[in-house]
Design goal:
The complex is a heterotrimer of chains A (275), B (255) and C (266).
Chain A lengths: L1 H5 L1 H22 L32 H36 L2 H16 L2 H12 L3 H28 L2 H8 L4 H38 L10 H8 L8 H28 L9
Helix pairs in contact in A: 2-3, 2-10, 3-4, 3-6, 3-8, 4-6, 5-6, 6-8, 7-8, 8-9, 8-10, 9-10
Chain B lengths: L2 E10 L9 E9 L4 E4 L6 H8 L7 E6 L2 E2 L5 H10 E4 L13 H12 L5 H11 L16 H13 L5 E5 L7 H18 L2 E6 L2 H7 L2 E6 L2 E7 H6 L4 H9 L9
Parallel strand pairs in B: 3-8, 3-9, 6-7, 7-8
Antiparallel strand pairs in B: 1-2, 1-4, 4-5, 9-10
Helix pairs in contact in B: 3-4, 3-5, 4-5, 5-6
Chain C lengths: L3 E10 L2 E11 L4 E5 L6 H9 L6 E9 L2 E2 L5 H7 L4 E4 L3 H4 L6 H10 L6 H14 L5 H4 L9 H14 L4 E5 L7 H18 L2 E6 L2 H7 L2 E6 L2 E7 H6 L4 H13 L11
Parallel strand pairs in C: 3-8, 3-9, 6-7, 7-8
Antiparallel strand pairs in C: 1-2, 1-4, 4-5, 9-10
Helix pairs in contact in C: 4-5, 4-7, 7-8
Classes of the chains: A mainly alpha (275), B alpha/beta (255), C alpha/beta (266).
Chain lengths: 275, 255, 266
């Protein structure tokens, strides 16, 4: 943990993600004003002490909306990544452990799935099941799961074919034990980096889907939809678009940097030895 | 004599290959007689050692250890074989998991095969046996030199108190001065622990220094076998002769 | 005049001195073995001579090849020297050859860099070179690609290229370490033969004392970047002066194969 914070990417990533997570947690118990309270007399107010980032067309407080939006972003990113991990990792292990005929069939199937755009899958799911944050997140997770399986499987194979796995076999270890003690730990950094990339991608996809109207439905605040709602102002008051856009950048950058930091610090070979 | 391994007409053909990688090969390993399987790359010596250990299935033929077949073992019979026969590999940089501490690497066979042994005490004892400071248990493999890593690999293999140690090119990845140390260590341990060594190697110097009997492999079959001294002094097969003539030698040392 | 004169060569990488005031001479036609274990600095000494040190390395001192100062020479000059006055053979013949070029084109590339050669002459030269280094079926092998050759055959091609332009010095860095013993014997024999034929000197960098002993007139023993001993091969092996050399030689005798004195008849 301390090693992670000593790593520049890890430190910046951790700070950015902590900021967003704090905003999300804070918004559960407190926001400066009710983000859903409509006030027609207060539309498009400039930033002030009462409204730190001003108000939108309906007079709702923008800062409060951004705080609540962090919940949606983090929640859907976590859900999508969980789905990707729950489906993708066993799929990778399955490809690695099954006989070559089955696994090469599975590989081709995954190739086809990867070629199918996640965004279109999300749109199909949302139009069939109704627009919701969670439907969109599950769609993103499904799309990411095949990518996870595809990229993690070769790592597992490398660790599985290694000398230390052979020696474990010669020491009587079961295939489950080899998977758990040798293959997964040695493929671990790849898995973690992969999953933090999925987190970043899912946060971005949530914003994109919401922006297009296929994600979080109104009136729940979401950074992507806030961006869409602010868009008419791009010619007159472009600065109002800056806040939600910056939030999206922060969360995506945060997850990516955190992933880099974790990769460097989880590997005992690159970790500075503490002798 | 006390036969440990009995290999009968073992053949191996890998999937998709158009000829046998190995065999037919037959050989015996007698208790206390260190055996060298000599050959160059691609001669099938590593395949043979994996099949003897039951880690790779043979296409035909049989391998018995103390009269029991090594393939298709399950449960306690499988654990018993694993306890009795251990393995050391060539590259100590690849054979130790980079994510595990030395202590856990050495302890792994004990945890699987000798449940109930006090692991920590035994690990310290094993590290001492290979002349390493027991404090090494807390280190990671990348913090060790090649020679130290190979000692760790040997300590690990000794854990279950095996009868046979199969060593696949155990010193060829090491520096010359370290080779000699590891070689002496292996010889001393074999004597002390009553181990029988099966050495898989291309290095005739190591074989000459360590093994009582030798089998020379070429293109998947054993072309010549017998007592090491006799085999090296009067090679019969043309390949053995060529091999012996090819080894660069040092000038005779003045006594 | 010596073919190679290294004076006070010091190489530092990231503040660490990896080669420390090395002095080394190779006379015309002489065969010198640069002997050391991993981390001894033997490969970096070799790389410095070839002008192929990594960018992070800082080298000081002097390296003269046939009188010309080559430490700090331009990349362009070093490229001209390599394959000209300076032939090189590396451990991995696989990576030393261009996988996309035919054997014949690679064999003649050191010559083509020097003189204009017609297409027809080029083929004849390649066949001639291939035959000289004992490649089987020279007429046809020159049309093949590296991956179609065995490791030993590839190393023969590399030896042919290293000696094609009649260099003053051939630098061989662990030339047989990746090869089988029977192949190693042939390559060492070939390397020695080609060096004699072309009158080149040989600097053989190796960890294997037996290989150095069978090939070289003189040995230079390197440890931790420092030359601890140098002398005629027989003297170094019989009466090593430095304690490290003694240790190394003892270890070599303990681990290497010694031919039985009397061959019994069966």
């Amino acid at each position: 943990m301390i090693a992670l914070l000593r790593n520049p990417s890890g430190l910046i990533g951790a700070v950015l993600v902590t900021v967003v997570a704090t905003a999300a947690l804070l918004s559960l118990v407190w926001t400066p004003s009710d983000p859903l309270a409509v006030d027609p007399t207060a539309s498009w107010l400039a930033p002030s002490a009462a409204h730190l980032l001003g108000t939108d067309a309906l007079g709702r407080d923008s800062f409060s909306a951004l705080l609540v939006g962090a919940q949606v972003t983090l929640g859907s990113a976590l859900l999508a990544t969980t789905v990707a991990a729950i489906l993708g990792l066993p799929l990778a292990a399955f490809i690695e452990l099954t006989p070559s005929v089955v696994s090469s069939f599975l590989q081709r199937f995954i190739d086809i799935m990867i070629a199918f755009p996640t965004l279109i899958l999300a749109v199909i799911l949302v139009t069939s099941f109704g627009s919701s944050t969670w439907t969109a997140a599950i769609a993103v997770g499904l799309g990411a799961s095949v990518v996870v399986a595809r990229t993690v499987a070769p790592e597992l194979r490398r660790a599985h074919a290694s000398d230390y796995s052979l020696l474990a076999l010669a020491a009587g270890a079961s295939s489950g034990r080899i998977m758990l003690h040798h293959v997964i730990p040695n493929a671990g950094s790849t898995i973690i980096v992969r999953l933090t990339q999925v987190l970043a991608g899912a946060a971005l996809a949530e914003a994109g889907l919401s922006y297009l109207g296929f994600g979080t439905p109104a009136p729940t605040p979401s950074w992507g939809r806030t961006l869409a709602e602010m868009q008419p102002q791009i010619m007159t008051r472009p600065e109002v678009l800056l806040a939600p856009a910056l939030c999206i950048v922060i969360v995506v950058l945060g997850f990516n940097l955190l992933g880099d930091g974790l990769r460097d610090t989880l590997d005992p070979r690159t970790r500075r030895s503490n002798r | 004599m006390n036969t440990l391994f009995a290999v009968e007409a073992v053949r191996k053909r890998y999937r998709g290959a158009d000829r046998d990688a190995l065999g037919p090969v037959s050989l015996r390993v007698e208790a206390g007689r260190h055996l060298a399987i000599i050959g160059e790359s691609g001669c099938g010596k590593t395949t043979l050692s994996r099949i003897m250990l039951g880690l790779l299935p043979a296409s035909s033929g049989s391998v018995h250890y103390r009269g029991a077949p090594v393939h298709g073992l399950r449960g306690s019979a499988a654990r018993d074989l694993r306890r009795r026969v251990q393995l050391v590999l060539q590259d100590p940089f690849a054979s130790l998991s980079p994510r595990m501490r030395v202590g856990d690497i050495v302890a792994e066979p004990l945890r699987i095969l000798n449940r109930g042994t006090p692991v920590q005490a035994r690990v310290a004892e094993l590290l001492a046996a290979v002349e390493l400071d027991p404090a090494f248990a807390r280190r990671f493999p990348h913090e060790l030199s090649g020679g130290q890593r190979q000692r760790v690999a040997i300590a690990r293999a000794l854990g279950p108190r095996p009868e046979v140690l199969v060593a696949d090119e155990p010193v060829s990845a090491l520096d010359v001065s370290v080779q000699a140390q590891v070689l002496w260590l292996l010889r001393r341990l074999a004597e002390h622990e009553g181990l029988t060594l099966v050495l898989v190697s291309h290095d005739l110097g190591i074989v000459q220094n360590l093994c009582h009997t030798s089998a020379v492999m070429h293109r998947g079959v054993i072309v010549e076998s017998g007592a090491t001294a006799a085999l090296l002094a009067s090679p019969q097969h043309p390949y053995t002769r060529e091999l012996l003539a090819s080894v660069p030698t040092l000038p005779q040392r003045p006594q | 005049m010596n073919v190679l004169e290294i004076r006070d060569l010091t190489v530092r990488i990231g503040g660490r001195t990896v080669v420390d005031s090395v002095n080394l001479d190779v006379g015309r036609g002489e065969r010198v073995g640069l002997l050391g274990e991993s981390g001894s600095g033997k490969s970096l000494t070799c790389m410095a001579t070839l002008g192929l040190l990594p960018h992070t390395a800082r080298a000081t001192g002097s390296i003269r090849l046939v009188g010309e100062q080559i430490l700090g020479a331009t990349d362009r000059r070093m490229r001209a020297l390599r394959g000209g006055q300076l032939g090189c053979v590396f451990q991995e013949p696989q990576s030393a050859l261009d996988p996309l070029a035919r054997i014949g084109d690679q064999l003649t590339s050191p010559l083509r860099a020097r003189a204009r050669i017609s297409r027809h002459q080029r083929h004849e030269l390649a066949v001639d070179l291939a035959a000289r280094v004992g490649l089987p079926d020279p007429q046809h092998i020159v049309r093949r690609f590296p991956h179609e050759l065995s490791g030993g055959q590839r190393q023969r091609v590399v030896v042919a290229m290293a000696t094609a332009a009649a260099p003053a010095l051939v630098l061989a860095d662990e030339p047989t370490t990746a090869l089988d013993v029977t192949v190693q014997a042939h390559i060492l024999e070939l390397l020695g033969g080609r060096v004699t034929e072309t009158g080149a000197a040989l600097l053989l960098v190796t960890h294997d004392i037996a290989v150095a002993a069978t090939t070289c007139d003189r040995l230079v023993v390197l440890r931790g970047g420092i030359v601890v001993e140098q002398g005629l091969t027989g003297d170094v092996l019989r009466r090593p002066a430095h304690s490290y050399t003694r240790e190394l030689v003892d270890a070599a005798y303990a681990t290497s194969y010694t031919r039985p004195l009397v061959l019994e008849t069966a």
